[in-house]
Structure formats: C-alpha cells, structure tokens
Amino acid sequence: MKIDKVPVKGLSSKEYEKALKISWDPVLKYNWDNGKAIGRYLHELKKGRIIARVCDKCNRIMIPPRMFCEYCFRPTDRWQYVKDTGKVNTFAVSRVYWNAQRIPQGEPPIIPAVIEIDGASEGMGLLHLLGNVEPEDIKIGMKVRAVWKPENERTGSITDILYFEPVREKNPPKAKPAAKRR
Amino acid sequence: MYKEKLEKNIECGSFPGQIPVNYVYTLGIAGDEFFRTIRDKGYFIASKCSCGKKYIPAQMYCDECFGECKEYVKVGTEGELYSYTECYYDYRGNKYDEPHLLGLVKFRDCEGGIIHRLKINKDEIRIGMKVEAVFKPQKQRTGSVEDILYFKKK
Questions:
Q1: Which residues of chain B make contact with A156, given a CB cutoff of 8 A?
Q2: Per-residue pLDDT tens for B46-68?
Q3: d(CA A65, CA B6)
Q4: Min Cα–Cα distance to chain A from B26, Å
Q5: Taking a C-beta distance cutoff of 8 angstroms, is the pair B10, A7 a contact?
Q6: CATH code of residue B102
Q7: CA-CA-CA-CA torsion sign (A131, A144, A91, A161)
Q8: pLDDT tens per residue across span A130-166
Q9: B53 within some domain
Q10: Whole domain around residue B124: which residue ranges?
Q11: Is the Cβ pair B9, A33 closer than 8 Å?
C-alpha cells in the first residue's frame, strides 16, 4: 500500500484537547558503575582536587583519567594531580535548557564550554559550564578557574565544580596589550 | 599486563541518577470510543470486524484479517476470570498493607481482555468464575482504566 493511501492524520490542537489521554511519569532510576578511573576522579573531586592519569609511553597526561591509553593501546601508568585552572578551548551560549525548554527572559543563558586543564596535556579538558561572565566577554583561550561547591555539599560528581569563572588579571593595563597581540 | 590493585574508592564507585521520561499518550480512535463509553454509559464495548472477530478493549484493526473494525458492539460488564495472581508489592516496590488480587478478565466471544483488581474472597476465587465490573460513580469518571474500581463475583 502506498503511504499516501494510509488513512493517517495528525490531531489538531482542538482534537487533542478533546481526546482522552493517559499520562505517566515513570521512575527510571539507575546506578552507574564508574569503573576505576572515573571512581577515583569523582572521589578526588569531592575533596576539591582534579586528578589525571599518565601514559608513560606517549607522555600524555589525560583528563578525565582513563585506565587505558587509546593511542598506545596499553594500560596507563600513574595518577597525577592537575590544577583547577585552565583555558577555554571552545564554548557555546545556550538559551534553552537540556530538555529544549526555552530559558525565561531575564535569566542568564547556559554556557557550556570545554576547558583545557592546566597541567594536563594540550587539548585535554573537561566539558563544563562557564559562569560569572557575560557571553560577550568570553574569548577562546581565556584563563578560567573552577568555582567549587562548599566542601560539605560535594557529592563526588562533576557538579562539585559549579562552573569555571574567568581569572581576572590584577593589572588590567598590562594584560590588555598582550591580548591584542594575540 | 595490568596489575594495579583495586583502589579503595568505594565512596564514588557508582553514580546514581534518574531519567525523566514522562509522556502523554492519546488513546486513539477506538480507545477513545471504548473509554468514553465506560465514562458515559458504564459498560464495555468491543470493536467488531466484518470477519466476525470482536476485540476488547476496542481496537481499530483486526489482528486476523487486517480489516478495519467499523462496528462497536455492547458487551456489558460481565466477564469470566481467565487468570489471576496475588501481589504483595506495588510496581515501585512498596509493600501493600493487604495483598492485592489482580486478574485477567475475558469477555464472551471477544479477543483480548481487561487486567484489573479483583475484590473476591480468596476462598471463593477460581479460574473460569463469572465476574462483574464495578465502576466509580459516573460523576467521578474521567475516561480511564481507573474508572473501573475492581471486578467482583457475579
């Protein structure tokens, strides 16, 4: 049967209002096994530190940590703490929430960003949020630092870091020409 | 080879969460008719295909011949207990104060059936017994399966 012969039509809003409906809100809980690398990583986040994993063969310091080097095809070798500062690798300004709902007028947009962490290999970073900054002021490569939750509120989650905020130079006049040259 | 011992990081060994997946689902043409009849008239209807098969709950197409079920016929409120079970916990894992009896009720000459609560004495219950639906008072009915309170012994 040809598709245009199938007697199918969508409901108009009026018909939808009139139609009988069922709605449901299922409880879909899960408990995800973190594995060794992410388990330790989250444990360290709870303590307010960021930890990476090092492969001694390719000398990469990897963040988020992983137990296996996908370049060298061998287990990684050791743990190493890295800083909670970094620079913006890329970012986006979102005016919708994760569920595609529009952010109300007047509320700040959500700014997801990839932060290259200081102390880790170049290009290694976290996907997180930028905060305490106007979207127009964000520059690729700008220095940022983590803003942590108070210690008693941390749960061992990436959200133990609330967001990354710009590191503001103490001597703005000196910093400005440097930024121009770049 | 990989020889490192397990870390004692049990605290963050797993990550709990919950996925919101709520939905609104329209009942469809036949489903709408079926539940509207329960709401407004207080009995069950079946959809009937030209090949003679009847379906309850009403459905638009015949499983047997793929024909459209163009006719609705009154079935009433009486059926036959096809199977039953006793439940101690609800679907979220909370224990019931008293065990619930759930049964599949089939209707005469109809395909399908309705699964619902039973309010029947445990000594009297048996497969094949005649049962009858008890509905909410008409004003409280909303056109859902919850308009049926339970099935009782006929």
A1: 11-12
A2: 999 999 999 999 999 999 999 99
A3: 15
A4: 4
A5: no
A6: 2.40.50.140
A7: negative
A8: 999 999 999 999 999 999 999 999 999 999 999 999 9
A9: yes
A10: 25-153
A11: no
Q: What angle do CA B18, A159, A153 make, to 5 degrees?
A: 95
Nearest to B27 among A22, A30, A67 (CB): A22
Name the closest residue on chain B to residue A40, using Cα atoms. Answer: B9
| A23, closest residue in chain B (CA to CA) | B24
Phi-psi category of residue A100: left, alpha or beta, with phi > 0 → left and psi -120 to 50 → alpha: left
**Identity of the residue numbered B102:** L
Spatial neighbors of B108 by CB under 8 A, at least 6 apart, are B75, B78, B79, B80
Which amino acid does the sequence have at B11? E
Is residue B2 in a domain?
no
Task: Provide the number of structural domains found in chain B.
Answer: 1
In a domain, B138, yes or no: yes
Question: How high is the ipTM of this complex?
Answer: 0.75
Contact A156 B12 (CB under 8 A): yes
CB-based contact B21 A27, cutoff 8 Å = no
